[in-house]
Design a protein that fits this description.
The strands form five sheets. Strands 1, 2, 7, 8, 10, 11 and 12 form a seven-stranded antiparallel sheet that branches. The chain has a five-stranded mixed sheet with strand order 4-3-5-6-9. The chain has a five-stranded parallel sheet with strand order 16-17-20-15-21. With 451 residues, the chain is α+β, with helices and mostly antiparallel strands. The two termini are 47 Å apart. The structure holds adenosine-5'-triphosphate (ATP). Adenosine-5'-triphosphate binds next to strand 14, helix 3 and helix 11. InterPro entries: AAA+_ATPase, AAA_lid_NorR, FHA_dom, Homeodomain-like_sf, HTH_Fis, P-loop_NTPase, Sigma_54_int, Sigma_54_int_dom_ATP-bd_1. It comes from Pendulispora albinea. Keywords: ATP-binding, DNA-binding, Nucleotide-binding, Transcription, Transcription regulation.
Amino acid sequence: MSSNGWDISTIRAPLMSTVIEESYALVVLDGAQAGLRCVFNGTVGSRLLVGKGPACDLRLEDPMVSRRHAVFEIGPKGVRLTDLESTNGTTINGVSIHEAYVRDGDRVRVAQTTLHLQRGEPKAVPLPKDIRFGRMLGASPVMRRLYPLCRRFAESELPVLIEGETGTGKEVLAEALHEASRRAKAPFVVFDCTAVPPNLMESTLFGHERGSFTGAFAPRKGVFEEAHGGTLFIDELGELDLPLQPKLLRALERGEVQRVGSNQWMRVDVRVIAATRRDLDREVQAGRFRDDLFFRLAVGRIELPPLRDRTGDVGLLACQFWQALGGSGVPMPEDLIQRFEDYRWPGNVRELRNAVARALALGETALAAENPPGKLDEPPRAPAGKGDLIEEILATELPLTRARERLVSEFERKYVERVLARHDGNVVRAAAASGIARRYFQILRARHTRG
Ligand SMILES: Nc1ncnc2c1ncn2[C@@H]1O[C@H](COP(=O)(O)OP(=O)(O)OP(=O)(O)O)[C@@H](O)[C@H]1O
C-alpha cells in the first residue's frame, strides 16, 4: 500500500515511459496577421482554441471572428475541428463544418481569416513516473502528464480553475492541491453554488449580522471567514448568480469581505480554487459570466479529461475501489473488469465507483462467473468501446441545438463508416446504397473520416 492508501500492485499493464507527441502548426495565410505561425504539440486530448478572446491560444485580429470561434483537438484519428457556434462560421477547403477532421495541408477558414494546417514530425517524449497526485489516482499518460502541473499550482498561491465533466474528480483534485500547498494545515472549505438557494448565497459566502434579514437570529460567519488562512473551493462556479459576481470579484481583489447587514470590512487570507462542469469561456461569450471575474479565477487552469480518455485507468481505479469498498478478500473478477473497460462511463469516475459498489453489494462475484459478459445489468457491454450515445451526449449538458447537432454528426459518422465497409470502400456504390449523390457522400466522408 502507498501512503495514500492505494495499492499499486493493482496496476494491470506495464507503465509506459514515453508517449508519442504529435506536432502541428497553424499558419495564418491572409489579413494583417499573414505569416503568423502557431505551433501545437501534444497527445490525444490536447486542444488549441482559436478566436478573438484573451483565453485563446491563437488570437486573431479579424473583427468577424468570435471570441471563442473554433477549437482544434488532437484525437486518436487525427486533428478534429469544432466550430464553437461562432457567428460567422468555419469551413474546411470551402465546406462549411460544425465538427470534422482536418488533414495536413487543409485550408481552414474562420470568418474572414484563412489558416493552413501543417503536420510536423511526431516525437517520443518521456512521461513522468508518478501515478497519483494526492488522492487522485491515474496511471494513464494523459493523467501522468498533468501531475507536474498540479504540483506547480499547489506550490503557488495562484487561483486555479478546474474544468471537467461531472465525476471526473474536480473536488478530489482541489483537495489534493490544498493538501500539497503551504496551507495544508489550515481549513479546506467547500462552497457549492448549486447547493445554496439564491436568496442565501450572499450570506453563505460572506456571512451575516443578526437581524440582517428575516430568519437571521444570530450572526454567522461566511465561507470566506471560515476558510481564513486556508483554501476555499467554489464548486459549480458557472452557477453563481450574475448580481453576486462583482461582490466575489471585490472579495478576491481586495482580500476583504463584508457580512450582510454590516458596514465593516474584514480582511481574509484565502486561496480560491474553483471548478466548473460548464464551458465557462462560452458563458463569458454569452454574457452570462463576467469576464473580469473569470480572468481573476482562471489564472491557473487544469482540464480533467473524461475517464474514457484515460487509457488503462478504468481497470486500475475499479480494482482500487473494489479493495477499498470491501472486496479485498476476493480479487475483482477478470470479466467484470473487462466489461468495465469496454464501457464509456459518461458519469466518469463517480459512476465507476458506484458500479463497483453495486457489483459488490449484489454479489456480482458469483453472478459474473455464471453469466456471459454483457448479460448483467450495469454497465452495459458496449460494441466497439462505445456506450449509449444518447446518454453520453446528454451527460455533456450541451444546449439542445448543439446536443442535437452532435447526435446527428455521430450518427452520420457511423453511417458512413458502416456503408463504406459494406461496399469495400467503394464510394460510388456506398453513395448509391445511401441514396445520395456521390459528391455529397464524399463531403460527408471528408467531414467524418481521415480516409
Ligand atoms: N482520480 C481519482 N482517483 C480516485 N478517486 C477518484 C478520482 N476521481 C474521482 N474520484 C472519486 O469519484 C467520485 C467523484 O469525484 P468528485 O466529486 O471529485 O468529482 P467532480 O468532478 O467534482 O464531480 P461533480 O462535477 O459532479 O461535482 C468521488 O467518490 C471521488 O472520490
